[in-house]
TrEMBL record:
Family designation: Belongs to the TRAFAC class TrmE-Era-EngA-EngB-Septin-like GTPase superfamily. EngA (Der) GTPase family.
Residues that, per the record, bind GTP 1: 9-16, 56-60, 118-121
Keywords: GTP-binding, Nucleotide-binding, Repeat, Ribosome biogenesis
Protein name as it appears in the record: GTPase Der
InterPro entries: G_ENGA, GTP-bd, GTPase_Der, KH_dom-like, KH_dom-like_a/b, P-loop_NTPase, Small_GTP-bd
Length: 462
């Protein structure tokens, strides 16, 4: 299971900036204005030794009226679902009265807390954290979220307190693990019941029927699988029951533990913003993916064309995934679903030979050269496999940090077509070798030095 880290503190102490740093994204809106963040924001990151889930929250202002009351409720929910809390304070402003009030609330929760003194760039680290010892929450850590100073040691220190994520014997015997995710009432439980051939899960025409992740082992054509049903993820504004507050965390953790993800969409409702967000989380997790359009039966031809058009327009980044049109209730198209799952899983764990990868790279470079960088041609020399699930292709060369995103997509598509890596994301990592002659001056011989002096005298006469 992924560790969950919540970011709490007063307004404008840098929580959203740290969230973007930890997730290597720009998902959280950042501006020099208090109270910008109001809802909880979830993201998956791996800045440290292992992946984790980080939760951004709104600032606790101490106000007890208006929207601040709802914001405080969101913060409390984030603390309750977290395994560790980063309590951010402003190293430049020093200890404020509101900081002590928040510290008192955090002590009551019993959660592990790390006091993070942000905005400590250009300050002495000991002086920046000195007065925050008075809150009694342990040794404060000085960082600069905007510049990244001290962030990686901070996250590594916290992640080392969690047990290592090892596969249990039960998971090893579970075979291919398939996570079924989607919004509420799109037919996830009905689909699992159809696949296993019995009413194993409660399926009801009301959103929120499934409350937890349910693991259902089954066999298909002699192979062992485990289907994982998840609670439907709704927009946070529509969550009224406290028991639903863990749905996003559970879904992210379930995707991380799975081998293949079935993203179930409702053909009658089309592709929503929440569907696109879930799809983005699946791609970010690197898991193999099959897109399932449920409730396809009964749609007119123009409605089917509308759904297909929405898929191309709103989810273009899922072009690598196979799309299945089914009816879980009546069984239409469900029989072909496991073939797509097997194909996606095989692609995600493919063994790619170094010689074949290098040959494809040479062909791609020969047909379309990388652009010039700083007046010099980027050279890509050879490639090898760096990991599975998802396949990671490591390319060595020089000036690889200057390879544009468009050329990276070009290489990714070439590798995908050559090795038939459909159904799984493909990640490309570039590495630049060290120049052994960097910093070394070429020592001239005596004859070369004499020739150089003659040339300089000639140039001066001219």
């Amino acid at each position: 299971m992924l560790p969950v880290i919540a970011l709490v503190g007063r307004p404008n102490v840098g929580k959203s900036t740290l969230f973007n740093r930890l997730t290597r994204s720009r998902d959280a809106l950042v501006a020099d204005q208090p109270g910008l963040t109001r809802d909880r924001q979830y993201g998956v990151g791996q800045l440290g030794n292992r992946p984790y889930v980080v939760v951004d929250t709104g600032g606790i202002s101490g106000e007890r009226e208006g929207v601040e009351v709802l914001m405080d409720k969101q913060v409390r929910l984030a603390i309750e679902e977290a395994d560790h809390v980063f309590y951010l304070v402003d190293a430049r402003d020093g200890l404020a009265g509101a900081d002590e009030q928040i510290a008192a609330e955090l002590r009551k929760t019993g959660k592990p807390v790390t006091v993070v003194a942000n905005k400590s760039e250009s300050l002495d680290r000991d002086l920046a954290t000195a007065e925050f010892h008075a809150m009694g929450l342990g040794e404060p850590v000085a960082i600069s979220a905007a510049h990244g100073g001290g962030v990686k040691p901070l996250i590594n220190r916290v992640l080392d307190t969690f047990p290592p994520a090892e596969e249990s014997p039960e998971e090893a015997r579970a075979g291919v693990q398939i996570a079924v995710v989607g919004r509420p009432n799109v037919g996830k439980s009905t689909l699992i019941n159809r696949l296993i051939g019995e009413e194993r899960l409660v399926a009801f025409d009301k959103p929120g029927t499934t409350r937890d992740s349910i693991r259902v082992p089954f066999e298909h054509q002699g192979r062992t699988y485990t289907l994982i049903d998840t609670a439907g993820v709704r927009r946070r504004a529509r969550i009224s029951e406290a028991i639903e507050k863990f749905s996003i965390i559970k879904t992210l953790q379930t995707m991380e533990a799975a081998n293949v993800v079935l993203l179930v969409l409702d053909a009658h409702q089309g592709v929503s913003e929440q569907d696109a967000t879930l799809a983005g989380h699946v791609v970010q997790s690197g898991r193999a993916l099959v897109v399932v359009i449920n409730k396809w039966d009964g749609l007119q031809s123009d409605e089917r064309d509308r759904v297909k058009s929405e898929l191309e327009r709103k989810l273009p980044f899922l072009a690598f995934a196979e799309v299945m049109f089914i009816s879980a209730l009546h069984g239409t198209g469900v029989g072909h679903l496991m073939k797509a799952v097997d194909a996606a899983y095989r692609a995600s764990v493919s063994d790619l030979k170094t010689s074949d990868l290098t040959h494809i790279l040479e062909q791609a470079v020969m047909e379309h050269q990388p652009p010039m960088a700083r007046g010099r041609r980027i050279k890509l020399r050879y490639a090898h496999q760096g990991g599975k699930n998802p396949p990671i292709i490591v390319i060595h060369g020089n000036q690889t940090d200057a390879v544009p995103a468009s050329y990276q997509r070009y290489l990714m598509n070439r590798f995908r077509k050559a090795f038939k890596l459909w159904g799984t994301p493909v990640r490309i990592e570039f590495r630049t070798g060290d120049n052994p002659f960097k910093g070394r001056r070429n020592k001239l011989t005596t004859r070369q030095q004499q020739k150089r002096r003659r040339l300089m005298k000639h140039a001066k006469r001219k």
